[in-house]
Amino acid sequence: MPASEFEAVPAVETDSKPSPAGLVVMKFGGSSVADTERILIVARRLAAARERGLRVVGVLSAMGDSTDELFTLAREISPRPHERELDMLVSVGERISCALAAMALLDLGHDAVSLTGSQAGIVTDTAHGKAKILEVRARRIHEALDRGAIVLVAGFQGVSTEAEVTTLGRGGSDTTAVALASALGAEACEIYTDVDGVFSADPRVVRGARKLDAVSYDEMLELSASGARVLQLRSVEFARNHGVALHVRSSFSDDEGTWVTAEESGRMLEKAMISGIAHTVDETVYRVEGIPAAALLSALASSHVNVDTILRVADEIVFSAPSDDGETTSRTLDELGARWSADADLGKVSVVGAGMKSHPGVAATAFETLDANGIEPLVVSTSPIKITCYVRRSEVDRAVAALHEAFGLGELAPSSSEPQGLARGRT
Amino acid sequence: MPASEFEAVPAVETDSKPSPAGLVVMKFGGSSVADTERILIVARRLAAARERGLRVVGVLSAMGDSTDELFTLAREISPRPHERELDMLVSVGERISCALAAMALLDLGHDAVSLTGSQAGIVTDTAHGKAKILEVRARRIHEALDRGAIVLVAGFQGVSTEAEVTTLGRGGSDTTAVALASALGAEACEIYTDVDGVFSADPRVVRGARKLDAVSYDEMLELSASGARVLQLRSVEFARNHGVALHVRSSFSDDEGTWVTAEESGRMLEKAMISGIAHTVDETVYRVEGIPAAALLSALASSHVNVDTILRVADEIVFSAPSDDGETTSRTLDELGARWSADADLGKVSVVGAGMKSHPGVAATAFETLDANGIEPLVVSTSPIKITCYVRRSEVDRAVAALHEAFGLGELAPSSSEPQGLARGRT
């Protein structure tokens, strides 16, 4: 029956979204797989993409707070758990969610297979707890995709060049997803989260915060570095360096979220001068004297402390680092014999926007606004597309709201849906 | 200083126990690693063995009921979870306990490393959920031992010849331990559990139950098959086939437990005619008609149902199988088109002892005892060293106590310590 030969080829429905060249990477964060009910929802979402004819790779985080619970177990055993063993321990959570999602997909009648980071060929360096992806050896993924299976890859983890299990650090599942999207030639990497996208400010703090339709990599980098935790900083860097288009969207709706792409991508980026106001209260500001900057930064890098803002005035060096790394940072400073003090009672508020490159008045507006609200910027740092002020922690929310209003961020077409949850939720 | 050269060689304290040729495998069950406090106790126990100069391999089960919780998650997702994915899921528990124990040992100043079943080179067949160990490729274990490290191996799991994660079935950590003891040339495999050893009957049922100092492999096999769950049946078979001496002992004391060795080992085995009375209530008895025995047993084997007792009278076949496998068994029987019935309200009581080979009166005593207590043995099966009776479930405890007394098992030197916990606890 030669006439039916062509009909036997399954019809591939083309997506109305930009062509993902047949392959999509879909990443779901911890809150999207918090319990078995939500994992079933995720499975149906992956299945729907497969049924539209796409090749589908899902990257899952661990269920809810399960990774935190593993860290708690480790701390019950040891005040400073051995890093290699800690990675063996905390990498199990993603394996659980992936295996459960694969079971659900198999029950839905789809071929599916879950892979650990190691099985998926995510090869990293040997920096346990903060490993960097060196290479993706995707043989097993390709084999599974070629036979039509949906592939679930455990996020946040890989295997080192010394054949040890490694993890990529907080939010590392985003990086896993972007690396896979790049290695597999996906045109889009969809990051599903518990909010509708990237907002002009934290909706918890600013009621009129608006969902952004698109931002550039650079803006997203500044937003991520400044406290908007919808995407992990490194994953945005990776996406920019490899030209992977990111689509940050809600696990709970089919609405378009926020696209993160190159400025020159042709996608309509925000025309506003300022994209958003980001903030974080998770950093400690250190003031150090008596140590050359190079020696200081090199020692902190060896200790894997992620230094953020760095300022230098005369002999004094001011830098910020995650409060979580406080113990390591203090130890490193002591070992250097530095004179130092720390202030953990500060918050960081950043005004981010590619438009400010050509608008020198932005800094003035920002400082006038803070001044009018009686808020003193204690440490200030700027980049071409960002102005960051450290203020007293108790004044952070007021500063964000005032700046959001001063730059008119809530005035453009307001988001049709109320933001669900928190723009700063961990992913 | 040539005179001190020899003193520099660390003194190896020889153990008072039979020489383990420098290497000991120590296996700890789920209740021994139920929380981080107990894991610290296990770590100190492993460290103490290392400090006596031994090369130490620890095999750990998952913490407490954590594997059961993973099975529950799987059932929330799927009524019949895909076996490959189920193994990916339920193999994480042992990885957690091993990583935590390794952290604890490192804090105690010992070198230590945790290995998954795959990393430890436990190669199995592809029967997910009930895999059999084919080979131990112990390169990584040897490397770690050679540098002086204590090696923690995740029990219950391996990697299949198709590079998939497999599990060995309930109690599989015992089998992991015995296989490693054999492959590494350990002369003893220590099985730490929450009871003091193997008892003449379940101490919960028979107050005067006595700890046995030593039993033969064959007796232990019959005891294990008959419901004494201190050791998994397969691990005893493996130990017998490879001549691995087992020492079943308490996690909570340094007392000698029960040695399981060859009858001809020279170790003083029990001289008593009967070693113990075992029982279980976890089996269902099936009566089947209209199917040739070979076809029936082959179909059940294909379905991985572990058939226990098999009897045949005229056209009727009677067999028992774990009640846990009830669904699979029923399906298999239906697919064969058999006429069948099942009785799950029975319990199995077994009298076990190598001595009965030369004492034909044992069976008579057993049946007289049951009869005198008004208990009817509904199905009976015997081996050279065992008599098994299926009785009504409600009569099991009375039957065990009556037989224990009839064979005078409580009369010999009573155990100095009260049994802690249950002889039938899962390991």
Account of the 3D structure:
The structure is a homodimer of 427-residue chains. By secondary structure, the first copy, chain A, is an alpha/beta fold. Chain A has two domains: 22-194, Acetylglutamate kinase-like (Carbamate kinase); 277-406, VC0802-like, CATH 3.30.2130.10. Helix content of chain A is 32%, strand content 24%. The first copy, chain A, has twelve helices and 20 strands. Chain A has helices at residues 36-51, 66-77, 83-90, 92-107, 139-146, 172-184, 217-225, 233-242, 293-302, 326-336, 361-372, 396-406; strands spanning 23-28, 55-60, 112-115, 122-124, 133-136, 150-154, 157-160, 165-167, 188-193, 214-216, 245-250, 258-261, 276-280, 283-289, 310-313, 316-322, 339-343, 346-352, 379-383, 386-392. An eight-stranded mixed β-sheet of chain A has the order 3-6-2-1-9-11-12-10, with helices on both faces. In chain A, helix 6 (172-184) runs parallel beside helix 8 (233-242), helix 9 (293-302) packs across helix 10 and helix 11 (361-372) crosses helix 12 (396-406).
